[in-house]
């Protein structure tokens, strides 16, 4: 009897991770080919949450696209809308009043903190650390309350408008925001105490999902994913929009490009976001209350007085309500530094009230594409860490 | 220093169709034939150094002809600038263009999406399957003649 005959016949195993699995952060199915516990191949199967948002937008006026934008990356709803409004404003060539710019920045940074807190809680939970979730949601809840104050919506405030904001901040918002800003750094210590030096956490994240800077660029990574690999790039600093150039903040960088470094980057980003909110609150004090909408008849309704007493005002009002915004023929690409990376909007206008084409570049979609590269040769348990570190939201992946 | 448009006009004078500026953005329309060479040049030339592909959008310009197009948005981390590259595809019935996956790995899913939703074939793509719609789906939803509510 030779050796070959005594060997047992072996074959690889196909395993479905998802589509409904608590650690896939939504409805994601990953088809894993396993050799024992080793991953030979990982094929993410997406599209379970595809709502055809790009298609729907082609049939809607620009205003009616806006609620859909909130629902892209729903953990940072207002940031997406912010980006979409910037894109349409660029198309129209509109400058937004300073006060509206600062409020947008403030909300975007608060949302960044909320999004990172959600990531921290779920990422920790996936890897067996139950407690961070409770601490993270404690502060996230306060941000949700702030969002509720501005417009009534917690997840989807729908507060930005093309040309500015729906309304000025309500009474009581500024003190509440100051309260959050002042207490957050102290609460942030709690998260560090739970995880940063935790032996199990380090074991599960160090050296897992390593991306070199060159690979990260090649795979189109942006935001904290790229910065974890040491790529010194932040759209807020390098291509500033909405007055970000007036703010002082540090862009944290990782060195090893692994899950642990990306964890540290996001942790520090929360503190930096908090600093930006603080500066925005200070700057807001120097602006004129109520000045939150561009005075441009193409996007802003005229004052009621003009509608009732002036034929031009009346026509302007009806045109905007019945027809909507009609940008000139042209195409623009506008991107912003969303919590998960570069959120881009490619808007093509044919001069009609509906976008001819709206292409959304969601960061989650791009980050997830590298799943196979990161997972090959790792253990099955690492796949969970990888999904967590990518900080994907399936609504943003599938659109 | 040369801009991306000047570089392409110098190295690929036959390929550049049009250069437009709108709201501070440069869009270079090129012929689709040598798209991979063009992308490689833009990626590696020190004047441009577009190491990062932001997005690929499949376009359907119906009723215009050429009907289909592919739009690439590139970013340079060295110069912190962008350029939009646009290629209009000759065939209105079965549009196809060479895949740029050899230039940027991230193009893989972008091209799968453009194939799935607009029906543009990318020659040489390592794994051209549907990505958002189910595998047995008929039609390409982002085409202009595809009805909003399906079927």
Q: From the helix content, strand content and strand pairing of chain B, which structural class follows?
A: alpha/beta
Protein structure class of chain A: mainly alpha
Oligomer: heterodimer
**CATH superfamily caption of the domain at 44-52 and 96-298 and 364-398 in chain A:** Cytochrome-c3 Hydrogenase, chain B
Major protein interface: A-B, 39 and 34 residues
Q: What is the succession of H and E elements of chain B?
A: HEEHEEEEHE
Q: Which CATH class of the domain at 44-52 and 96-298 and 364-398 in chain A is shown? A: Mainly Alpha
CATH architecture assignment of the domain at 44-52 and 96-298 and 364-398 in chain A: Orthogonal Bundle
Q: Find the count of extended strands of chain A (DSSP E, 2+ residues).
A: 8
CATH topology of the domain at 4-92 in chain B: Beta Polymerase, domain 2
Cα-atom Rg of chain B, whole angstroms?
16 Å
Rounded mean pLDDT of chain A is 89
Set out the fold topology.
The complex is a heterodimer of chains A (399) and B (151).
Chain A: H1 3-6, E1 13-17, E2 29-35, E3 38-45, H2 53-57, H3 62-70, H4 77-92, H5 98-126, H6 131-151, E4 160-161, E5 164-165, H7 173-195, H8 199-205, H9 213-218, H10 223-228, H11 235-238, H12 259-284, H13 304-309, H14 311-323, E6 330-338, E7 341-349, E8 357-361, H15 363-369, H16 371-375, H17 380-390, H18 394-398
Helix pairs in contact in A: 3-4, 4-5, 5-6, 5-12, 5-17, 6-7, 7-12
Chain B: H1 4-11, E1 16-22, E2 25-30, H2 35-44, E3 52-60, E4 68-76, E5 81-88, E6 96-98, H3 107-118, E7 121-123
Parallel strand pairs in B: 2-5, 6-7
Antiparallel strand pairs in B: 1-2, 3-4, 4-5
